[in-house]
Amino acid sequence: MTDSTIEVGTTLSHYRITAKIGEGGMGEVYRARDIQLNRDVAVKVLPSAVSGNSDRLRRFELEAQSTSDLNHPNILTIYDIGTHNGTSFIVSELLEGETLRDHLQTTVLAPRRATEYAVQIARGLAAAHERGVVHRDLKPDNIFITTDGRVKILDFGLAKLVEPTDQSETPTNVPTRKVGTEPGAVMGTVGYMSPEQAAGRRVDHRADIFSFGAVLYEMLSGVRAFHGDTAIETLNAILKEDPQEFSAITTRVISPALESVVWHCLEKKPERRFQSASDAAFALEALSGRSNSSSATVISSTPGVGRISRERLIWIGISSLLLLSTAALAFSYFFRHEKSGRLVRLALATPEKASLPGRVEVSPDGLRVAFIATNSEGKRLLWVRQLDAPIAQQLAGTEGASSPFWSADSRSLGYFASGKLYRVEAGGGRPQVLCDVEEFSGGAWNADGTILVGGHDGLLRVSAQGGATTLVTKIAPKEEAHRWPYFLPDGRHFVFLADAERTEDHHLRVGSLDSPESQILISAVTRVAYAPPGYLLYVSQGALVAHPFDSSTLKFTGNPIPVAEHIAQLGGNHEFDFSVSDNGVLAYQSGNPNSQLTWFDREGKKLSTVGDPGNYSTIALSPDEHRAAVGLLDVDGRASDLWVSDLTRGNLTRLTFDPQSDSDAVWSPDGNQIVFSSNRAGDGFTNLYTTSAGGAGQEQVIYKSEATKFPTAWSRDGQSILFENWVDGAEVWVLNLSGERQAKPLLQSNSFSQFQGVYSPDGHYIAYVSTESGRPEVFVQTLPLSGNKWQVSTAGGVFPRWRGKEIIYVTEDGKLMAAETKTGGTFESGVPRQLLQTSIKMLAGAGYPYSASSDGARFLVNARVEATNLAPMTVVLNWQEDLKK
What we know:
Elements: E1 11-12, E2 15-24, E3 27-34, E4 39-45, H1 48-51, H2 54-68, E5 78-84, E6 87-93, E7 97-99, H3 100-106, H4 111-130, E8 143-146, E9 151-153, E10 177-180, E11 185-188, H5 195-198, H6 205-221, H7 231-240, H8 246-249, H9 256-265, H10 277-288, E12 296-298, H11 310-324, H12 327-336, E13 344-348, E14 358-362, E15 368-374, E16 380-386, E17 393-394, E18 402-406, E19 412-417, E20 420-425, E21 432-436, E22 443-445, E23 450-453, E24 460-463, E25 470-471, E26 479-487, E27 493-500, E28 507-512, E29 515-522, E30 528-531, E31 535-540, E32 543-550, E33 555-556, E34 561-564, E35 569-571, E36 575-576, E37 578-580, E38 585-588, E39 595-601, E40 606-614, E41 616-621, E42 627-633, E43 640-646, E44 652-654, E45 662-667, E46 673-678, E47 687-692, E48 700-703, E49 708-714, E50 720-726, E51 730-736, E52 743-747, E53 754-759, E54 765-770, E55 777-782, E56 789-791, E57 798-803, E58 806-810, E59 815-823, E60 827-829, E61 833-837, E62 850-852, E63 858-864, E64 873-877
Helix pairs in contact: 4-6, 4-10, 6-9, 9-10, 9-11, 10-11
């Protein structure tokens, strides 16, 4: 046989060729059938340069034998080697998927996915290195991604087998080869080889670690770490230059700790890199929150630091390895010896097949954490994790849970779902309904069995056994709600957030169960918690701070001290993700920004993203669907402004500039104007304003009253606007734009709320949300009103949009649903069906979090940033030791 293509049907030994599936510098690859074992395999036929050289063939056979003995899930399994009519071939497992090179050409890897792949690569390298096998040519072309997401390393030990063939080719891009240099020979692929390879020096397993760093850099950034116009320029870069900082070449959010791992792999001197692939794998597992040895892993990098010192990087690699395997022991030790004074940071793993956890809440005794996560079935549940246990347990019956909080004895949890307050035992059991609630903005539970929850009229008090609620605090002028209560040590006083329309009117207050009066502590827009012996913890400019506080005098005693950067904001009403125990355990989740404008199709397939991640609040597509009006929140979620996104180019143009909040944009039917709500008047209410969609005109108030108002729809004839009117509850009102611009109620009730009204395409119907059944549901009525109405949703629904012959809406747990409609002589709606399990970020009072194309085929969603861009849950033992520094 020659190097020509082998015909289908040819039999090599007992392998019958069935198809050609690839070719490269190491020969041609075929799909074949193993006749003896009745299985499909891959057969690589080696080029004659290898087959015809007995010395090289012998070395190849030895290497293949070593590789076949590895038997590791991340290394291609070699089944057989042989010759047929003078041609050598290798038989291996048959893989379905694509190489990492092909994958990177069509897909931009999110940091979490890149980290998952990198862990598997490092594990494969570690297994090979333990057997004395060095790859010498690790690159994206030699890494295979199977269709089920497994990583396989290909061509171990083959780098030294390929001689240069055509010297006119640019070595930067050609298959593996030796490049002649003096005094030694450069072996590997230019662009991925280590400095010692580039200099022709002796190499060991640490050369693979450098190549691994180059591959990881490319997965995270989308560009090669070292790439010149010529091979010489590339070799010089490997020997003398560092790759560009990630911040200079990508807008993706890459954690400093993950960057540190990359730089540690890419050290020029082998002795300064990770000294084993296992070290690198452990460090990456600590970042991803999963480990084979323990699911509680130690994060040793310093938050907020970019490319830190080389000495510290070495320490990171060593300490991560040493502390990782003893994380559970560390928990037990520090719980027994609270006064040891040593600070330890740990990252908690995501439950298997579940979303990244959110809203972590550590128990008062510091032994457990509760959090919200979506399981493999798409259900958002409450989970509990013993800090010294390997896994978390989901609490059955807690579907749709949000904003959990612990009882004072750490035995029970309170949480909110479907307009009600529940309690459930931390060890599991049937949840108990305690009372109805008007919003989900936190709770506090003292040792006497009193629970406080947030409300629009003030904080509400209810017994931990359930029953009627009573008002505890009194709303002050310019305030709109009291939220996020937290009991002080005496169990009578508490701190909370007084929320308001205007930025300057937000305050942290302290109150008492004995009086409805409260006093202002400080201006802030955040959840708040108390930590013994005397600190209030809250978020300021995105950072968690500890403010010294005397709980007996109810006064601050010092200045706030930074504790952690970029605390994640998970929902509306300033729900920052942190909590603290009574005995020195702090838990938080980092991640900012937290959402991304993302296109999905009806099957839930992610089509593309628009622009950069940010703290988006609302989305409204323009009539021509070339633009979108979006709300962007500031770092503390205090206020928002409206921007217009060019959906083709992804750039943003600012539309409003007032320091107060502007939100809830709705387009005019001709696409020239936008109506929005704003609290800029300073009267404690939001009013309706219009502005030019191009940003050139003046913003004008079109309707002002003593009520909070949010626009929801503009009629197709341009003559009227539907809006929500909130006083004691919500009502649907209509503003006629002709003549004197009179506004009047369209749907109102004294016993329940109605809101989010939208016109049907023909203008003869209105879809809206009503709470008359006890929870929000989507209804339809005729226009003009005739008294007939029809319920569309069946299991809760908000944010309806009418698209063609469908009504689209969102369930409470984030599913996007569609119901077919008929609007002939009477209205009919079909059974709602799920379109996609979205990752919609829904903020209370922030308007529509998605928009649909006119044909209902695509959806622009305010999607939560993928878990890769959020750090795992971080738990800090003896966190106050940091304050002493």
